[in-house]
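[Solved] Which block belongs to which protein?

Original post:
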Amino acid sequence: MPESGDEHFETVFSHGVDLFNAKEFFECHDAFEELWQEERSDRRLFLQGLIQAAVGCHHLSNGNTSGAISQYRKSLDKLVQYPDDYMALDMKAFRKEIERCFDGACLMNAQGAKYEVDNSFFPVLQRIE
């Protein structure tokens, strides 16, 4: 029996969260983008913000600080519009961690640093039970 639209969304969304937390940022982007392309509610902008956070993390993990800065800025502009607990995620903590990554990318960029950032630096999407 095929999944309903809501079940499909939840399955793919949960998988995207798991991929982000596993630091599989490129694959996370793909999962969230699949949903983003289908979405027509106000969750669409939220998904775009998560996609941009994942892309920012991907860029920073590869030493592309200017790409990371751009994506983090876009992500935060979108995610700040959502409550601190949205879609069963702790968005307050996540936004704070993305801001920390943004600040780190800005510092690296100002110093002309181009090194790979350790996975432990990146945030997680904490689920709220």
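(Second protein starts here: sequence line, then its structure tokens.)
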Amino acid sequence: MEGNTLSVDQVTTLLENKPVVAPQKDIQEVRNAIETYNQINEFDPYSINSLRYAHRLLLKGLVDNSGELRTTSVGIAKGDEVAHIAPPAHLIEGQLKSLLDYVEHDEDLLLIKSCVFHYEFELIHPFIDGNGRMGRLWQTVLLMQHYPLFEFLPIETLIKQHQQLYYNTLAKCDRLGESTLFIEFMLGVIDKTLEELLTTQPAHLTGMDRIKLYQSVVKEKRFARREYIQHFKDISASTASRDLREATDKDILIKTGDGRNTVYRYG
């Protein structure tokens, strides 16, 4: 979260309802984040009202107008210079609706659409404060519709590990006037994190966990059993076969070919 200075130990203490030595604002930010992410499954990803409700939870007690779209013009300053002038307030609701309609109905991959949403949301800057946190939260909400893994691997966490590069990439795209570099950056961060998760935590995953994780990697591409095993290096060939057979039986995977020529794709 932007401006959050609490350590992991302080957050743990807070969760245990013990006294915390930290600025009150930082404690409130953590409380709000916990409450917001606890309700993440209840948000409607394509509803402006739901987005406003999430903002109210996330900024409660931190700003006077939490949950309200801004009604004034704003500019984003970098040092002594104005780096970006956000759209006029009267255009915000229409632009948000168009952006959410694009994510809901366009045929692009959801991973790409969620990155476009994140970038365009920052440009629209619909709230007076908290737009960065909301953009990262809502990309997670969107991705969870098809990739439940992101409930436990939120965009906020991924960005925290690459925070300066994240802001630098946003600024560079703003200067260029297009989002390609930001989309590439976000997809790279997601891909790297998923790759690490796939190779370091297989022992704790069920067969269906592995199947769901692997979908985030191969997306709509066809793959063979050997490729599946290469990602989950600690499982045996028989375990891989069992995973793939179970997913096929449940219509999660579509199987074509026989023997060595067998390939799978997500249905």
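Accepted answer:
You had them paired correctly. Confirming on the second one: The longest strand covers residues 81-85.
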